[in-house]
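Hey, I'm writing a tutorial for new members on how sequence and structure tokens pair up, and I'd like a real worked example in the thread rather than a made-up one. If someone can provide the structure for the chain below, I'll link this post from the tutorial.
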Amino acid sequence: MTQPTDIRRVRGYRPYLHTALELAAAGVPPLPLRAGKVPFGNCRTCANNVCGGRPNMKTSGPCTCPHPCHGWAAATTDPHVVNSPTWRRAWREAAGVAYHPGGAGLTVVDLDNADAIMWARASLPATRNMPTTRGEHWLYLGAMQSANAVRPGVDIKSTMAYARWLGPGIGTLTALPDVVRALIVKKPAPARPVAIAVPAPTAGGQCPHRTPTYLDRGIAMAEQRITEAREAVHATVYRTFLAVLSTHGRCGCLTETHTARLFTAAQAKGESVRHCTDAWTNALTTLGLSHV
């Protein structure tokens, strides 16, 4: 394997830089850590973490600086960046090396105490692990959403998160199991009743539905569409509300009972009452029904 960017030249320069270049060559995106396991702000704008040290979540991507430099967004497998003058300055002050697990297709189960380790040994499939100051990191092959405090003493570090590099670990790396993915799934809160604006029939309008069955079938299909959504739930809820209102919103057949069923389905997918109400109101406005 070809060594990245003259790795031999940095062997005696800084152990952290050497480690980072080896990780990058292996496809694991590294980044430097300051004392206290805090990432650097790697540009002048973000020096000393004046920016808060986080990616720009408003755009669901890295920061808006010339180069990504906040936390996990700074991690890269590009050896020219890792060994650049800007990063060399960071490595001189670094107290450790971190990496972006999700960027390498990995998930870290961070076990913070002895009780958490006991739970993992009883509940999770064995995989590669490494000791930490207070507990252990269990490493699985596969990325997922990160989350803190999924249970006492347990954090999940994968996408949009970083973990401290503690060495290659021991044991065989195994596939990310469903039991770990399930740790971040929250039980939906009970649906709360909410006053829903139902458009009145348009003047002189006639109902095109020959039987109530037609409307009931349409509501049931809408509920199913929301329930089966696996991604872009917000957009799916809005489009479903729009479809229901475009078909049933002008004839007066739609009742609060029908729309409450749609809200309940959306809340079961994790939508808040506010999101449901906003989506419904936007759909009414789009169809010109907000004042009907």
